[in-house]
Amino acid sequence: DDPEKYKSGFPWHPHRGIETITYVLKGNVEHADSLGNRGVLSDGDVQWMTAGSGIIHQEMPS
Question: Which of 20, 28, 31, 58 is deepest in the core (most CB within 10 A)?
């Protein structure tokens, strides 16, 4: 296990029945989900996502 080889961010993963809040302190984060939503969050941006019956999404540095 070499930490230098770890991928940053949160690659594709599922949620169901919860809400998530993403707050970007510094930099840019690219959001994409299984419903076709895409966007980039920047310094100070907030995203509120409701998973409902299920969603697959990722949040990756851009």
Answer: 31
Burial class (CB in 10 A: 0-12, 13-18, 19+), 6: exposed
Structure tokens at 6: 């770890």
- pLDDT for the residue 4: 81
Phi, psi torsion values for 53, nearest 5 degrees: -80, -5
Kindly report whether the global pTM for this prediction surpasses the value 0.85.
Answer: no
Domains of the chain as residue ranges with CATH: 3-61 (2.60.120.10)
Q: What are phi and psi of 21, to 5 degrees?
A: -125, 130
